[in-house]
Amino acid sequence: MFSIERWQEIFEGLYKNKLRTALTGVSVASGIFILVILLGAGNGIQNGIQKQFEQDAVNRVSVWPGVTQKEYNGLGVGRSVQLHNADYDLATTLLKDYIEYKSAIFSVWSGNIVYKKETGTYRVEGVHPDYQFIENASIVKGRFVNQSDNANYEKNVIIGQKVANDLFKNGEDPLGEQLNVSGMIYKVVGVYSDPGGEREESRVFIPIATAQKAYSAGDSIRSMAFTLKKSDQFDNAVAESHEFTQKLETFLKARHTIAPDDQGALYINNSLEQAKNIYIITGGVQAFFWFVGICTIIAGVVGVGNIMLIIVKERTKEIGIRKALGASPISIITMILQEAVFITVIAGFSGLIFGLIVWEIVGPYVEADFFTRPEVDFNVAVTTLVILIVAGAFAGFVPAYRAAKIRPIVALRGE
């Protein structure tokens, strides 16, 4: 029940001990502030990792050839492995039950591209039509590579938004324009955007059959990329992805006479397994941040508890008089708890607000590859407030219980 007199007593007591109250409040506020900063940083790490995985399909498996590091079946160390169209065709046939999208890739890392007086160096990649979905690319204008382009060795090119901005000034429409790509003329049939940003949009795609012919590659390919069929359960998806990776590695090593335990001859990147490992790590980081923050809050709460014990000791005679006049133990407990909760919640809420303001101001300017948009969401803020209330009650309970146990005759006799 609301009592003006009780609140007046609380404020009078706080005013009489301004320095003590301020120091106690600062310890609680700093604990909540540190917790908010840590949780915001944890969310920034998680958001940064999610942004990295948005650049490509999460369930992507990529394969690159390397150099053998072990002798096997009479073949020596240092042998370069070269993948071919047949490797891609046989692998996609053998493992078709796992595969959603697939593409072989032939890359030219420094392709010189010229349009009128504009020129630039960009990565040129020969791909199959499915590569659009493997890369999470969105078509802004026109279309992507199609089957007809590969079947007819068409000299069509799809350019990234960054390439379009660099080469086509004054709002020119790239579609239908001619580009000189490393000495050959291609027609622009599409412009794409990529969630990975400018780095991913600084590429151009051409049909892989055209790329192999234009760069005298024969049937050689530089890498292969797949996405796997989705599963309702993340753990099942990881297990199937691991199974696919193992079968693909076994098939390619047998086909190219590579030792089963040779780790340098083929490089296989499984983004789903990476995602699981990284999310386990980020979950651990978040748990550690919560632990550190809670420990800091506990330190502040202990300070509140100590202050309340001092207050009870100072007011022993007053509490004895109250009890002698008929005050019930529950009223004494409520009085002490109310003051403890008030100090804790006001100080903690100040720390919470200050922490949120810091992230609101600083957050938009903090950007890195694996750190972006540090923030504390509404649910975490509510959870923090609940922690404050519980902490305040806990800090005041022992002193309040001690006050309720004071015997009036003892309190009135003591100094």
Number of helices: 14
Q: How are helices and strands ordered from N to C?
A: HHEEHEEHEHEHEEHEHEEHEHHHEEHH
Average pLDDT, all residues: 81
Q: What low-confidence regions span 5 or more consecutive residues with pLDDT below 50? A: none
Strand content: 15-25%
Morphology: elongated
How many domains make up the coordinates? 2
Number of extended strands: 14
Helices and strands in order:
Blueprint: H1 4-16, H2 18-54, E1 60-65, E2 83-84, H3 85-94, E3 99-115, E4 118-127, H4 131-134, E5 138-142, H5 147-151, E6 156-160, H6 161-167, E7 178-181, E8 184-193, H7 198-201, E9 203-207, H8 208-214, E10 220-221, E11 223-228, H9 234-255, E12 266-270, H10 271-314, H11 316-324, H12 329-362, E13 367-368, E14 371-372, H13 378-404, H14 408-413
Parallel strand pairs: 4-9, 6-8
Antiparallel strand pairs: 1-11, 1-12, 2-10, 3-4, 3-7, 3-11, 5-8, 6-9, 7-8, 13-14
Helix pairs in contact: 2-10, 2-12, 10-12, 10-13, 12-13
Quick overview:
This protein has 14 helices and 14 strands.
Structural commentary:
It is a single chain. The chain is α+β, with helices and mostly antiparallel strands and 415 residues long. It folds into 2 domains: 4-52 and 277-413, no CATH class; 60-271, no CATH class. The protein has 14 helices and 14 strands. It has helices at 4-16, 18-54, 85-94, 131-134, 147-151, 161-167, 198-201, 208-214, 234-255, 271-314, 316-324, 329-362, 378-404, 408-413, and strands spanning 60-65, 83-84, 99-115, 118-127, 138-142, 156-160, 178-181, 184-193, 203-207, 220-221, 223-228, 266-270, 367-368, 371-372. The strands form 3 sheets. The protein has a 6-stranded mixed beta barrel with strand order 3-4-9-6-8-7. The protein has a two-stranded antiparallel ribbon with strand order 2-10. A hairpin with a 2-residue loop joins strand 3 and strand 4. The longest helix is centred in the C-terminal third of the chain and has 44 residues, at 271-314. It starts with a helix and ends with a helix. The relative contact order is 0.18.
